[in-house]
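note to self — DONT lose this again. spent like an hour looking for the file last time. sequence + predicted structure for the chain T wanted, 198 res
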Amino acid sequence: MENDELKAIAEGLLFASGDEGISMKQLCRILDVPDSIIQYILKELEHDYGRKDRGLMIMKSRGILHLTTKPEHSNYFKKLLELPHAHKMSQAALETLAIIAYQQPITRTEIEEIRGVKSDRPVQTLLSRSLIEETGRKDSVGRPILFGTSKDFLTYFGLTSLEELPPLPASTEIDENTNEADLFFEKFNDEMNSNPNE
């Protein structure tokens, strides 16, 4: 099979894998080619997507490859979410998202201990918007669900990895006295201000 055809199929697989994404090993197995060929194909795709007239890019998150939108276009996706049919997130949801972003993986109970209030509704809001996802279960009594940020979280805030999160002040610990939303959304607060309805 020619490299151009392999590249086209790999691109299709990246698209078809959706939010779950696909690993290098899966691509090797499906296309029945060695790792070196897949790496070459991905570099070719990354070069193609690097052009200004392309709106997509390949992102690697936790060892999984995703086809996603470019961070530099994130303001337009925020505008899409702010259209009349899309409600802005409440302060409670923003605070919960900040806690999860910095403390992940984290359980709902642990979120509530930090916030000092019940957090069922904010967590459900974030899940419905695909900004967070279940990442497993904690090895403790009851095996509670662990939550972490999703690929859509990175896309929404124009990040390519969690390493790009703005750092917390060295002297600040996230606890009930810390305004996590202010810390986390320092660079995004113009877009994210909303009324606390949740």
